[in-house]
Structure formats: structure tokens, C-alpha cells
Amino acid sequence: MELTRLGDTNFSHVKIDSDLKNDEVNDALLQDLQTAGKKAGIVLKITSAKSDHSVNTKDGNKSRHGFQTAVDIATLDGKSDYKASNSTNGNKEFRDAGNKVKDVLVSMGYNWNSEKGHNKAVLWQTTTGGNHYNHLHVSNKTGQTSDVDQDFKFDSDDSKSDETKSDDKTGILDKMSPEQREKFNIKLLSMLGMSESKNKEEVLKETIRIKELMK
Questions:
Q1: d(CA 198, CA 105)
Q2: Span 107-134, average pLDDT
Q3: Domain limits of the chain?
Q4: For site-directed labelling of 59, which of 53, 101, 113, 198 has its Cα 20 to 30 A away?
Q5: Which letter, b or e, does each residue of 153-189 get, where b requires 16 or more Cβ atoms within 10 Å of its Cβ?
Q6: Which of 192, 97, 88 minimizes the C-alpha distance to 135?
Q7: pLDDT above 90 covers what percent of the chain?
Q8: pLDDT tens-digit series, residues 162-182
Q9: CA dihedral (55, 118, 112, 102) positive or negative
Q10: Greater confidence, 211 or 112?
């Protein structure tokens, strides 16, 4: 495993706290963080490595920081949130950015929220090993880098533009389950003075007409 002195790095999407310049970290981990940051379009700032981290985790296990195979990232695109303690409080922009970075890392083979038995892991939005709502903990025990899964896409409604959302032509009835649709149609037909016993062909025509009006 090759180690790289943090003060000697020059990445576009990975920055370093000034007090960590003499720390050495697994180079494959740093390369993967650069890949993840670039894919997510987010600049990651390493805020903890070996020198400023405790030997043990909050769970009492030996921290991978001490083996120079893990770092903490508490700043994303210049935003930090040290007060975050659950999945809803704190800075939403910071949380959304962290989710994007986590998603990319998972697509690269990093296990989410469990290090035990996994050479590559990311702890985020969990209290496993400590409060990981205010920072991402990322570790890589190997000397191997990873690529982003070629089929990876950000799966989030937030990633859709307003224009994309307004182009959704799905009607209200299309979004209902078959059971909901049937009840809805019966209620509407009743309001229009029609009954279920009426000729099925007429009921079908009326249902189609109602569906077109509601698109």
C-alpha cells in the first residue's frame, strides 16, 4: 500500500486542512476521493486523518485512521455542519452534498455504514463509530483504486430540473393503483348520474373521457 503525504497532494476535488499537511494517507483512498468528488461535482475537504484522530472509535474498536487508511470529510463545497446529529436537523445543503458523495462511493464498491469485514467503507448518516451526521468517514485498506459503476446515475427528484418536472405528462389516474382507480372511476360516474350496471361499453368510454380531461 502506497502512502502519500497530504501536503504534497494537488487534487481538483480534494482539499486538505492545513494542520494535516504532514499526515500520510493511503494513496488509493485519496485517488478514490478525487474520483468521487469529481463525479458528484463537489469539492471534498479532509478535516481529519491520523494525527488529529483518537486511536479508538466511539465503539471501542481500533480506528482505521491510526493505520493511515481512513479520513474524515466535514466540509463539502465549503459548507460544514458540526451541529448535525440526525437525518433531519442541520444544514440540508450539506446533507444533500454528503448523500451524493456517499452514493458515488457506494457505486465504487465502498460499503455503506459498516466497516467490519469490508476493505472499503463509508460511514454517513449514522452513529456507528461516532456521530457521522456531521462528517463522512471514508476508509480503504487496500492499495487498489475503484471506478464509478458505468450504470451509476443520481437517483433523486432533486436532480430533475423544473422543466423536466413540468414535462411529466402522466395523468392523475395513471399514478393511482388499480384499486384506487376503480374506486375513483365509480365515484365520478356516480356523480355524473351513471351506475356500474350501465352498459360496460358506455362506462368504458366515459372513463376514457374523464381520464383525458384530467391529464
A1: 58
A2: 95
A3: 3-147, 173-213
A4: 101
A5: eeeeeeeeeeeeeeeeeeeebeeeeeeebeebbeebb
A6: 97
A7: 63
A8: 343 334 444 555 556 666 666
A9: positive
A10: 112
